[in-house]
Design brief:
Blueprint (H helix, E strand, L loop, with lengths): L1 H18 L30 E4 L6 E7 L4 H4 E3 L5 E3 L7 H6 L4 E19 L2 E18 H9 L10 E20 L2 E28 L2 E14 L2 E3 L5 E2 H6 L1 E3 L7 E15 L2 E15 L4 E11 L13 H13 L3 E5 L4 E4 L3 E10 L4 E11 L4 E14 L2 E10 L2 E11 L6 E6 L17 E12 L2
Helix pairs in contact: 1-6
């Protein structure tokens, strides 16, 4: 927990890029109608037969999207081939600052299907199951990086630096039905069990001088919701000491409860055209007061500066560790009153259309996705070419525009031999070069997905 909070606060996006495991919908597979995972994109979708997902492997993948946190924006190569950070004096200030946004953001999520089942009846198609879901968001203003690179004389005011993460269980029941030969509608009702929520926020960080000495005015808060979590700190504590006082008492369980709803429809106005739309995650989770641990501070501390010792022998890890140590010296927390908190889900909208050719052997699909996050909407547009050469084999290639950035290429494959297995796998963003932590160096996002189910004759 300590590493997550401190690391994210200092260099949140890069730390998350190293450690996260995350998943979301595979947009390239949206039009592959043999895939049982399509119901997760639109509750009106379903296959002709029933299925039961392989426990835990029913659907798991990875997705990250950002507007500016690319590895090669922050890590640079020296003339001798060794790596260094943006803190190195050899890194041009204007070149580094020019790559940043006023609000630098990273969004990450996890959807893991623990169990799923679907079956067809004369009245319609029923689904049910359990998912584990997680998401995290980071927002770091440009001023935080200017302060580290340029010093206290040349930086923009820091008014909102925030990191948050949520984890919850989703138990769902879904139903879809044909209202007409060319119109299918569906819905999914979900119970949400809150496992954990945490948010760290800095609303003010100003550096000023008094009698030739530098100080920082820091206003920060931290709230965590975990069943059985306690912190017995008294008075104002340095951040390391405060985190050391976390302990679990009274067992484990749910820290919150909520409800969610998905709605969708698929319409075929012409024999060669399908259109569909869905709204997902309409709902909320109410986090309980008894499971909360809250802390805050608002005061003036000595500003120790960010004059990191960057030399030819200093590694990237050492530079980031030094930067983190400097930041920690200026953040302190004191316990405040417990409080309940209600939080809405990150609602998503999907709109798709597919034109069919050669007796549905080929299709060209266009999918628009809009997803809310803690601070900003994520807008994706995916164009795919879909192929159905055999009854049990379907595939697709795609290209996507991610928050205004072009150039990603994706693929999806569905293998579904009758009475054997139903496998969907793929990725929306294929990348050429990765770090040793498997993060793409030049990409504004990535997505990987795999799901396995067993067909049922019901």
């Amino acid at each position: 927990m300590k590493k997550i909070y401190i690391g994210c606060m200092i260099f949140g996006a890069l730390i998350l890029q190293r450690t996260e495991v995350c998943a979301q919908m595979l947009k390239t597979a949206y039009f592959l109608d043999n895939s049982v995972q399509r119901q997760n994109y639109n509750p009106a979708f379903h296959t002709d037969k029933g299925f039961v997902s392989v426990p835990v492997l029913g659907g798991i993948g990875a997705q990250v999207e950002t507007n500016s946190f690319l590895v090669d924006h922050f890590i640079y190569k020296r003339p001798d081939g060794s790596l260094t950070t943006f803190l190195d004096p050899s890194v041009n200030v204007n070149s580094f600052i020019g790559k940043l946004k006023d609000n630098n953001r990273l969004s990450q999520s996890l959807d893991m299907n623990i169990f799923g089942i679907g079956f067809a009846k004369e009245s319609g198609y029923w689904t049910g199951g359990i998912n584990l879901r997680q998401n995290a968001n980071v927002a770091i203003p440009k001023g935080a990086f200017e302060l580290a690179k340029l010093g206290p004389d040349s930086y923009s005011p820091i008014r909102k630096l925030e990191v948050n993460a949520n984890a919850f269980l989703e138990i769902y029941a879904g139903y879809s039905r044909k209202l007409m030969d060319n119109l299918t509608v569906g819905g999914r009702l979900k119970y949400l069990g809150g496992l954990a929520r945490s948010r760290m926020k800095i609303t003010q960080f100003d550096v000023f001088s008094n009698e030739d000495k530098l100080y920082a005015k820091v206003n920060t808060s931290l709230e965590t919701y975990v069943k059985g979590l306690h912190n017995n700190s008294t008075g104002l504590q340095e951040i390391d000491k405060y985190f050391d006082n976390y302990e679990m008492k009274g067992g484990y369980g749910l820290a919150g409860n909520g409800l969610g709803l998905d709605l969708g429809a698929e319409y075929r106005p012409l024999s060669w055209l399908k259109v569909s739309a869905s709204i997902q995650d309409i709902g909320f989770i109410s986090w309980s007061k008894s499971s909360s641990v809250r802390a805050a501070s608002d005061g003036i501390v000595d500003f120790v500066g960010f004059d990191i010792d960057v030399n030819d022998d200093s590694s990237v890890d050492n530079q980031l560790d030094d930067l983190g140590d400097r930041f920690k010296q200026m953040i302190k927390y004191e316990n405040i009153a417990k409080k309940a908190h209600a939080k809405s889900l990150y609602m998503k909208m999907n709109i798709g259309a597919e034109a069919l050719f050669l007796d549905e052997l080929l299709g060209v699909g266009l999918l628009y996705t809009n997803q809310m996050s803690e601070y900003f909407p994520l807008n994706d547009l995916t164009l795919s070419v879909n192929c159905r050469p055999l009854d049990w084999l379907q595939g697709a290639l795609s290209t996507s525009v991610i928050n205004g950035h072009f150039g990603s290429v994706g693929f999806a494959l569905n293998i579904a031999p009758e009475k054997a297995v139903n496998i969907t796998l793929g990725g929306d963003f294929i990348f050429k070069k990765l770090t040793k932590q498997f993060y793409p160096i030049h990409s504004y996002g990535y997505n990987l997905f795999a799901g396995i189910a067993i067909p049922l004759n019901i």
